[in-house]
Amino acid sequence: MTYLSKAISINILMLLFAVAGATITIKEVAAQELQTYELDECHLENDMITPDGAEIYYRVCGEGPPLLLVHGFFATGELWEPFLDDLASSYTVIVPDMRGHGRSSNPDDTFIHKKSGGDMLAVLDDLGIEEVQAVGFSSGAMSLLHAATLQQDMFKSLVLLGGTTHFPETSRAIQRNAGFEAFPPEVSTLLRRWHPGNDEQIRELFANFRDMAANYRDMNFTEPLMGTISAETLIVHGDRDEHFPMEIAVRMYRAIPDAYLWIVPNGNHGLLFEVWGGSFPGSGAFIHVLQEFLSGEWPQQ
Questions:
Q1: Residues spanned by the domain of 102
Q2: What pLDDT sits at residue 187?
Q3: CA 297 to chain centre
Q4: Given 41, 96, 189, 224, which residue has the most CB atoms within 10 angstroms?
Q5: Hey, CA dihedral for 45, 235, 13, 63, is it positive or negative?
Q6: Is 7 part of any domain?
Q7: Average pLDDT of 133-152?
Q8: Exposure b/e, 256-280, CB count within 10 A at least 16 = b
Q9: What total number of domains does the chain contain?
Q10: What are phi and psi of 242, to 5 degrees?
């Protein structure tokens, strides 16, 4: 392990969208061909049924210790495809679609992060995994917070990208005003590529996203609850995150017993996920730090 300063000067680039009315630029998304390890090449794909009837689709790639990757809201497991070359060479990478996203179903008319966290535990149980390392972005990070407090001994380490303990009013305002029709055609094309249910599925996700604005129970992590997380935890957060102020990441860092904090200068909510179809010049630094953290090579400071 090593100490990461709260102001490491590494540029990590923007996500295609931060679902937040942030400025969006698109580079011929429909014509994109990712020059990386593709999820279609994974050696296992499966789906399993949760106790409440959700069908959770997942893929497994690579060889090595298990590593769970959980995407953000509106995305699917394909979000991680640009990083699979680096990760699947060292880890057995488990890539699920969260409930209601991609090829996973959601029997409810709402999206609850606590249920999503339970889904992740169910996927790991389906694979017979007893201990895992995990990386989550945005809603994926929130799902992992729930999973790590529901079953503390499952997680050896966590990497939380752009996560939160609760939804501040700035985030709730974004949620209330989100709508599919407001996005440019290129984004609609990408969403339709990700979600086989097309417009009906996508509109349901937007409805779920808007409903989060009125839910004060799902994301409501207290310091004592976060204090039960036993996993080594790396928190990565942009200092310009338009959803969740940097102070929330600092609060998580102080509450989780074995935590590290990486504040990204000039980083927005999207962090290292640049426009699909473009290059990922910020990913090299992230992958380097991620691999060092996951390998346990950091010396104690």
A1: 29-295
A2: 78
A3: 24
A4: 96
A5: negative
A6: no
A7: 97
A8: beebbbbbbeebbbbbbbbbbbbeb
A9: 1
A10: -80, -15
